[in-house]
Design brief:
Helices cover 16% and strands 28% of the residues. The protein has six helices and 22 strands. It has a ten-stranded mixed sheet with strand order 7-6-3-5-4-21-14-17-18-19. It has a four-stranded antiparallel sheet with strand order 13-12-11-22, with no helix packed on it. Strand 1 and strand 2 form a beta hairpin.
C-alpha cells in the first residue's frame, strides 16, 4: 500500500510540475491575463496608433508689415528776387537791406584792404590831389572785417546818396562834413561817423594810425538801424543779365588806369568771366579778410572834371568834382568794352551808363568796380582775342 501511495504521489507531482511549467511559460509569452504589455524598448519603437492625434506644429508668426516712414514735410522754395545792386537772386529780406557805404583807404600802408571782395559796388576816385580812395557799398554780404576806414569827400556822398546809404567814414573835408550835418539824417544819406559812434569801430595793432581803423558789416547794420536807416524796397539802378556763354567770350584783354601813386590793371579771365585786379604793390590784389582775389564782373571807367576844393586848406590838396552832369565812359563786361557815356541828373538820382547810341547798357550779374578818373588821367584798353567763329551746321540732305 505504502508503495502504491508513493507511486500515486509521484505521478501527481509530475503532473503539477508540468502544469507549473505551462503556466509560467504562458505568462512569459503573454498568453495569460489578456494582451501582453510591450516592453519599454518595444514601446518606444512602435509607431503611433491610427487614432492618435499628432501634436500640431506651431503656426508661423506672420512678419509685421513695415510701418511706412512719414513723408518729409516739403521745404518751400524761397521766392528769390534780383538784388538791386548786383542783379543776383537773393532772399527778399536781403534785397531790402539798407545799403552801407564805407570809405576805405588806398595808400600803400593800407594794403591789402579788407572787405572789397564782398562789396556789391566799389567806387574809386581821387581824394588827395590824385591819390585814390575807395567807397565800397554792401548789401548782399556783411563782411566780418572792413577797412581801413578813412575820411569823407563831398562827391562820394553824392554816390552814396543814390541809395540813401548808411554812409560810414572817419572825419572828412569841411565841404563833406557840412553836407553831412545838413543832409545826413536820411535826406541824402545816414551819417555814421566813427568819432560819433566809436563802439562800431576798433583799432587794430598790426598797423599804425590812420591806417588801422576797422569795422564790421554787422556792427554797421546795427548802428545804422539805431540812427534811423530802415530796410525798404529798392529799385535797381542798372540792367543786369547772366554771363555770356563761354563760346562767346574772348580770350585775354586788359584795362589799365593810373592815379597818383597807384596804377590799377584788370586782366580778363575767360573761364570765370571776371576781371582779375592788380594794384601798385600787389600783383594779385586780394582781400585781407578772406584772402580772396579781387575780380569784379564789370569794370566801368568814367572821366570827370576835378579841381582844388575852394574852401579847404590848399596844402592838403583836397578836390571837388563835377558829379552832376555827364561825360565819357568805357563799360567792360563779358570780356568786351564799349565806349559810351555816364549821366547823373541830381544828387540822389543814380549814375546811369549808356552805349554810343544812347541806350542803357546791360551789365553782367555780379560785382561792379567803377573807376572815376580825372580828364587827363592815363587810361588804356587792350582787346582780347575774339572767340572763334562757329562753323555753320550743314544743311540737312533732302531725302
Amino acid at each position: 500500500m505504502r508503495s502504491n501511495r508513493t507511486a500515486q504521489l509521484g505521478i501527481v507531482g509530475v503532473i503539477g510540475a508540468l502544469v507549473l511549467v505551462i503556466v509560467v511559460g504562458a505568462n512569459a509569452l503573454g498568453l495569460v491575463g489578456g494582451s501582453p504589455s510591450p516592453s519599454p524598448v518595444a514601446q518606444a519603437s512602435l509607431p503611433p496608433t491610427a487614432d492618435a492625434s499628432p501634436t500640431p506644429s506651431p503656426s508661423p508668426t506672420p512678419s509685421p508689415s513695415p510701418t511706412p516712414s512719414p513723408s518729409p514735410t516739403p521745404v518751400p522754395t524761397p521766392n528769390l528776387v534780383p538784388d538791386p545792386l548786383t542783379g543776383e537772386l537773393v532772399d527778399p529780406a536781403i534785397a531790402r537791406r539798407h545799403p552801407i557805404a564805407v570809405m576805405i583807404d588806398d595808400l600803400r600802408p593800407a594794403r591789402p584792404q579788407s572787405g572789397l571782395s564782398q562789396a556789391d559796388v566799389v567806387w574809386q576816385a581821387p581824394a588827395e590831389g590824385g591819390i585814390p580812395r575807395y567807397m565800397a557799398i554792401f548789401q548782399t554780404e556783411l563782411p566780418k572785417d572792413i577797412g581801413p576806414v578813412r575820411s569823407s569827400r563831398y562827391y562820394y556822398i553824392t554816390w552814396a546818396a543814390e541809395w540813401r546809404a548808411i554812409y560810414t567814414h572817419a572825419g572828412g573835408s569841411p565841404q563833406a562834413l557840412n553836407t553831412l550835418t545838413s543832409k545826413g539824417r536820411g535826406q541824402w544819406v545816414y551819417n555814421l561817423e566813427a568819432f560819433h559812434h566809436p563802439n562800431a569801430f576798433r583799432r587794430i595793432t598790426t598797423r599804425q594810425a590812420p591806417h588801422n581803423l576797422y569795422t564790421t558789416g554787422p556792427n554797421l547794420r546795427k548802428t545804422g538801424l539805431q540812427i534811423g536807416a530802415k530796410d525798404q524796397n529798392y529799385t535797381p539802378a542798372w540792367n543786369f543779365a547772366p554771363d555770356a556763354p563761354l563760346d562767346q567770350r574772348p580770350t585775354g584783354g586788359s584795362i589799365t588806369v593810373s592815379y597818383l601813386a597807384n596804377t590799377i590793371t584788370y586782366k580778363y579771365d575767360r573761364a570765370s568771366n571776371t576781371y582779375f585786379r592788380s594794384v601798385t604793390g600787389e600783383a594779385k590784389q586780394t582781400d585781407a579778410s578772406n584772402n580772396q582775389r579781387i575780380a569784379p564782373k564789370n569794370v566801368i571807367v568814367m572821366l570827370m572834371k576835378f579841381g582844388p576844393l575852394s574852401n579847404s586848406n590848399p596844402h592838403k590838396g583836397r578836390l571837388e568834382a563835377d558829379v552832376i552832369g555827364s561825360g565819357k565812359a568805357w563799360i567792360s563786361t563779358n570780356g568786351k568794352t564799349i565806349v559810351g557815356t555816364w549821366k547823373k541828373t541830381s544828387v540822389t538820382s543814380p549814375t546811369q551808363f549808356f552805349d554810343s547810341k544812347g541806350q542803357p547798357v546791360t551789365l553782367t550779374i555780379g560785382q561792379t568796380f567803377i573807376n572815376v578818373m580825372q580828364l587827363t588821367s592815363p587810361v588804356s584798353f587792350k582787346a582780347g582775342t575774339p572767340p572763334p567763329t562757329a562753323a555753320p551746321s550743314p544743311s540737312p540732305t533732302a531725302s
